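Handout, section 4.2: multi-component inputs.
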Amino acid sequence: MTVLCLIEQADDGGVADVSLRALTFARALAVSLAPAASPTPAASAAPGSTAGLGGVAAVVVGDAAGAVPALSEYGVSDAFEVELTGYAPQAWARALAGLAAELGATAVVAASTDHGSEVMAHLGAITGLPMAANCVSATRSATGDLQIVRQRWAGSLLEDAVLDASPALMTVAADAVTAAAAGDPAATAVHVFQPALGQADLLVTATESAERSAGMSLATARVVVGGGRGVGGPDGFGVLEELAGLLGGVVGVSRVVTSEGWRPHKQQVGQTGTRISPELYLACGISGAIQHMAGCLSAKHIVAVNTDPDAPIISHADYAVIGDLNQVLPALVAAIRAREGSS
Amino acid sequence: MEILVCVKRVPMVGGKIVVTADGQDVDTRMSGFTVSPHEECAVEEAVRLVERHGGTVTVLTLGPPAAADQLRDMLALGASRAVLLETDGREWGPVATADAIVAAVRSSPAAGGPYDLLLFGNEAADTGDYQVAVRVAHALGLPCVTGIKNLEVTDVGARAKREYRGTEEAFDIPLPAVVSVKEGINLPRYPSLPGRLRAKRATIERQEPEWHPDGLRKERLRVPAGESKRAAVLGAGADAVPALVTLLDELGILP
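Output:
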């Protein structure tokens, strides 16, 4: 009844937030899959033995030491440290396949990050099994089926489906799951796992540049000032930049702005760009197509500035100013500057 | 270089997504169709590579007969051959789709192979399965990289780069290879008039692959609940600025 969960590590070696969410998903799945007679199968496993392992087992590629505190907190009693250095997606998937076979895993999950999605796709190809991407929940139904809910259209649509495969392969739509530690922390035993690799498994290995890109990141900015078609052209972004500067934030744009070449793609917020989660998203001249909203629904507060009171963004925003951003924003900048000057 | 680009016909969805009464599909009666954004960039990238290194670009899609429209759109961007793996309109899962693409590639020269490079979009806009490219690579025994934002063909293969948590990951791979790309790798051109005319006249090669189920069974689609609210209107035009400043102050945003 083991559910394997691939762990991604943060820069300090701890468990990345997305993987804490995946662990939360995996734990709920393990509880749902456990036979009713033995609700805590993990407790029955002999110490040091991996036979008859229950619950969630974590898979960490490389040094697992830094991940152990969080794994304990999330109730993971067994962690497998895969002896591999660097990111080689096919080799990581080969390791998961080997572990899943050895443990008789019923499911393998990973967060739907670039790495998680890629490794799970390789695992699907290696095993010939289906892989359900962007799952929001997975539970065993009364009839014994594995009933899943997964995102389509980057979360604008949900799909109810049955995943009939063993092991069940899934990526977890991390933005749809809240991380929650286990009620009972576990003592995490770390087992070393040596994957059986072929030469082809290591053919594709990443080299990572040590340089961090300069400037504030759109993904982590506290304030994002968004501009869409309503900005009118490539020359209209000055006031957005100025406002973003005053508020300690950055400028984000809609897809039409990057498709027109007004701004570089790295500023795009949305399904095919960056997902943001600021305290404030001030969306100016943006109609609010679902592909854009998929990228900004994690924003704590959305304020829309739009000439059209019936634009879709108005039904996603918390507050709205009905008007032309080219009048509203300069007045807002002036008001904030006046306030600063007087204080 | 011989390059194959696989694209998908998806509904052109705007401000709202509507599901058909039987819950099986997105209602497309009020919308057109387009190629997934990442894949349009894949076609542009292929056309640029061929402009630099010579060769041909073949576009392939699996879909209903009407998906020929999307193939013609891609021919207008500069692809020179088009293959339609024609279906009866039902949804194909990623396993069956990859199998059909592999069969078409193997049936060369019907599909124009063998290829030096097989390009895909990182994920389709609608189903977001993230795996057709990887499955095709495994079946053909080729190396595979995904999510690529920068691709350079060298004397010995290709160098592919992507973003990863604020840094850059690079992969050096031999060719032939499978590469999936993301929007932002380039800015696709607008189709030229001669390109459109050529696309209109072009012959589209057709094959009819066999559908097969996989272990993931769709039951129904639904729009997430509780999406719709209505913003509190602060005012109109520049007159709303005092209210907006007060709000930003309350939210703790103002310096």
